[in-house]
Amino acid sequence: RWIVSGSADGQIIIWDRKTLKPHRTFNGHSDGVVGFAFTPDDQRMISIGADKVMRVWDMLTGQQAVALDVPFASLNNWHLTRGGQSLMFLEARNSIAFWHAPGYKHGFPD
After folding, report:
1. Cα separation, 62 vs 57, whole angstroms
2. Which of 57, 64, 70, 105 sits at a 20 to 30 Å CA gap from 32?
3. Spatial contact of 77 and 96, defined as CB atoms under 8 Å apart
4. How much is the pLDDT for 17?
5. Mean pLDDT on 10-31
6. Is the pLDDT of residue 84 over 60?
7. Mind listing the pLDDT tens digit for each residue in 44-61?
8. What distance in Å separates the CA atoms of residue 35 and residue 76, rounded to the nearest whole number?
């Protein structure tokens, strides 16, 4: 349904796959977008920027729900777990770190 692009200026654009027109734009990262993932219910998008901030976006409103500094994380080595409740990061010290939000549906506030 959607195509997602992230750019060096920190902007994320959600494109309509049928019309190839922008559906929604997300601004918040102060540096390039390194990656993004969607929660299993497609209601949240998680983005990681070269600014070392993880942002959680509400796909219905387009608003940022959470911003978390992740200075310890390897920006190219992170994964949203299958249940959507945790993010796993490979740290520079060859260890693994988790960000988990227990008590929330899919890990993020409703």
Report:
1. 6
2. 105
3. no
4. 93
5. 94
6. yes
7. 888 888 888 889 899 889
8. 8
